[in-house]
Request: fold
Amino acid sequence: MNNIRSFFTQQIWEPLFLAVKGLPVTRLFKEFKSFQWQNRKQLRERQQKLLKDLLIHAASNVPFFREHRPKIIYDAVKSNASMALREWPIVCKDDINMFRADMVIEMDRGTFRNSTGGSTGVPTIFFQDKIFQAQTLAATNLFFDWAGRPLGAPYVRLWGAVRDLTGGGGGFKYWFGNFAGNRFIFNTFSMSPESMIGYIKKIEQFKPFVIEGYVDSLDELARFISGKNIRLKHRPEGIISSAGTLFEEARLRIEEAFRASVFNRYGSRESGNIACECSHHSGLHVMEETTFLEIVDESGQPLPPGVEGEVLVTNLWNYTMPLIRYKIGDRAIWSDKKCPCGRPYALLEAVNGRSSASFRRVDGGVVSPAFFIHFIGVIHNEGGIRKFQVIQEAYDRIVVLIIPEPSFQIDSWPGKDILTQQIQKAMGNTCKVEYTLVKEIQKTPTGKHEYTVCKV
Reply:
C-alpha cells in the first residue's frame, strides 16, 4: 500500500499540485541536489549574484529601502555584495510592524500573507510570494533527503500550528491532504497519554521514512515511549527536529526511543528553511542557495567562529517583501569545522534559541537558556521533574515552574538548595529564586513549550 501511495504522491499528485499552483519546486529541488556537491567557489558566485540582484531590486523598487539605503550603493553592491550588505540597516520586527506598507510591492508573483506564531507577543505579519514558497519547499525536500526520505515516501509530522494542520484535524480536506501527501499530521496540542498511544499505533502501521516535529513534542513522545517501556517495531530513517532548540539531552532521549538519528533543522516563517544537519551531524549546514546569514554582536559587527551572537537573515528569493539583515530574534554560533560530507555550505556550531529566552543580568550580561535546561533538566533531575519552565520576572527574581512526577516533593528535593546557589551565581547573589509545582505549563499559540521566559 505504501508503495502505491508513494507512487501516487510523487508521480501524480505533487506534479499536478505544483503545476496548478505555478510553483517550480521540482526544478529547484533538482538544482539544489546537484549544487550541493559543487565547490564553495561556485556556491559563493551563485549566492553573490542572488544577493546583488536582491539588493539592487530593494534599493530601486522598495520604498522602505529607497529611504534607508546608503548613499553610494550600486557600485559597492556590484563589486562586492556581501561587503556592501554590512552598510545596510538592520531590520527588526518593530520595523515590519511600523513600515510594512513601505516594505511590500506587488510584482505579479502570487503575493500571500503570512505571520509568526506570536509566541513573544502580537504576531508579526509579513508578505511572501510563490517564488519564495517554491524555494522553501525545495529546501524542505532537500533536508528530507538528507534525513533519508525520498520524494513521495511516507512521513509523519508532529506539529502544532493550527494553520498547518490542513483542516484542523478532521473532514475530507484533512483526510485528502494526508492521503495525497503520503503523510499523517499529529497535533502537538493534543499530547495526552491516549493520543500518544494513537500516534505510536499509527507510526507502526504507517511506517514513515521520517518523523518531523517540534523538538519538545518529539521529546514528550520519546519520554512516553521510554516511560511505558515501549519498543517500536518500526525504525524510521531519521527524525527531523524543528521549531525549538535541540539540546543534547533531548537528542539522546529521542534517538533512544525511536532508534534513529535526529537531524536538527533551523528555520522560520519569515525566512523559510535556513539550516539543517546532514548524516555526519557535524553542525547545521546553512542553505546558502537561498539564505545569506550573519552572526553579529550588539553593534552589528560580524563575529568569528565560536562566539555566540545575534542572527541576521537575508532571504535571497522573496522580492515581494525583501527582509534584508532581518534580526530574527535567535542567537547562534559559527563553526570553524568542515563537514566530512563535502558539501560547500558554511556550518553553524549551534543555534541557542530565542534572544528573548535568554536572561538579563543587572550588569548587562546574558545567561543562556542552556544553563537552566542543563542544571534543572539534567544535573538536578533524578527523574522527579517531568517538565519545567523558568521565568525571569525581574533582574533579581526567578520563578521555576515544575510539573512533577507523583513521587516528587519540593521540600525534600536534594538539588533545590544547590540549584538556587548556582542560579544566584549566574544571575547575581541578590537574585531570589522561587519554586512552584503546577499541573500544566501554558504553551505558545503554536503549541510549543518554552523552557525559559524573560519578562525583563
In short: The chain is about 40% helix and 25% strand.
